[in-house]
Design brief:
By secondary structure, this protein is of the alpha/beta class. It has 11 helices and 14 strands. The protein has 2 domains: 141 residues, NAD(P)-binding Rossmann-like Domain (Rossmann fold, 3-Layer(aba) Sandwich); 161 residues, Lactate dehydrogenase/glycoside hydrolase, family 4, C-terminal (L-2-Hydroxyisocaproate Dehydrogenase, Chain A, domain 2), CATH 3.90.110. The strands form 4 sheets. The chain has a 6-stranded parallel β-sheet with strand order 3-2-1-4-5-6. The structure holds (2S)-2-hydroxybutanedioic acid. The site of (2S)-2-hydroxybutanedioic acid has 14 residues, from helix 9.
């Protein structure tokens, strides 16, 4: 089987971690792209990672480049280009600056890699993935936003910590937009098959929900000059791997909805099956009235941001 090609747009902290994870998992050869001002950064990271290949014994290679032609023909593209927020900022504060960057990125993807499965990580995530799909004109099933995997992973991590139990047995899901109104589905969460609501009292669950919702901001406050990078990279790679290896995993992702959850023509975080066909299925979780109200609130926030996107 021919080696796959993974285009990483943005050579910052997440981009570097993505490149490392992609080659360590032997997913294919990696092209790490950034603008000419960051040439040293992408070439340096590529060289550094390639020099590690003998230690780890993997055969995938990384190319650092500032030329979109090198990205051409990528099977998967992960976009991390854009500006991260600083303490005190909301993700929405990044809309104008990151939209400008997304216009250029989406146009280049359309020109150079129109058949790629594209995963967006840039914020504000749901609005950026909306802009990406509209500008690139790529089929909706080939464009997703990463955040559901990240938010769900944070939720599971905090649950495992609270119970001092293995993360392996935590089953949980976060739906909705990638913002402070995201919806951790406590009622649907289990640990080793035992309902989470039986294992933790309401005040502890509420604290976990709150921490999950503010998970990105907690890291922004700690890092001070940027936002999370390890977990976003791992989350994106899980999605890319499911596509490249046709794993057909069901992962929460921002996908274009066509009436599911009562939402049409917006990207919103829901469980989707990702395989060789991109987003192959969108799953609808049965929700009670309270959960529906939370979804509506989360969607209102996403809609408000998307409505201010000038394409
Ligand atoms: C995250 O959740 O870590 C990212 O969306 C980055 C951020 O600004 O919070």
């Amino acid at each position: 089987m021919a080696k796959k090609k993974i285009g990483l747009i943005g050579g910052g902290q997440i981009g570097g971690n993505l490149a490392l994870l992609a080659v360590q998992k032997n997913l294919g050869d990696v092209v790490l792209y950034d603008i000419p001002a960051a040439e040293g950064l992408v070439k340096g990271k590529a060289l550094d990672i390639n020099q590690l290949s003998a230690v780890d014994g993997y055969d995938s290679r990384v190319l650092g480049t500032t030329d979109w032609k090198d990205v051409a023909g990528s099977d998967v593209i992960i976009i991390t280009a854009g500006v991260p927020r600083k303490p005190g900022m909301s993700r929405e504060d990044l809309l104008d600056v990151n939209l400008k960057i997304m216009r250029d990125v989406a146009g280049n993807i359309k020109q150079h890699a129109p058949n790629a499965f594209v995963i967006n990580v840039a914020n504000p995530l749901d609005a950026m993935v909306f802009a990406l799909q509209k500008i690139s004109g790529l089929p909706a099933n080939m464009v997703v936003g990463m955040a559901g995997v990240l938010d769900t992973s944070r939720f599971k991590c905090f649950v495992a910590e609270a119970l001092n139990t293995s993360i392996r047995d935590v089953e949980a899901l976060v739906l909705g937009g990638h913002g402070d109104d995201m919806v951790p589905l406590v009622r649907h969460s289990t640990v080793g098959g035992v309902p989470l609501t039986q294992l933790l009292p309401k005040d502890k669950l509420d604290a976990i929900i709150d921490r999950t919702r503010k998970g990105g901001a907690e890291l922004v406050a700690l890092y001070k000059t940027g936002s999370a990078y390890f977990a976003p990279a791992a989350s994106s790679i899980a999605m890319a791997e499911s596509f490249l290896l046709d794993r057909k995993r069901v992962l929460p992702a921002a996908a274009l909805l066509k009436g599911e959850y009562g939402i049409s023509d917006y990207f919103f975080g829901v469980p989707v099956q990702i395989g060789a066909g991109g987003v192959e299925k969108i799953h609808t979780v049965e929700l009670n009235e309270a959960e529906k109200a939370e979804i509506a609130k989360s969607f209102d926030s996403v809609k408000k941001t998307v409505e201010s996107v000038k394409l």
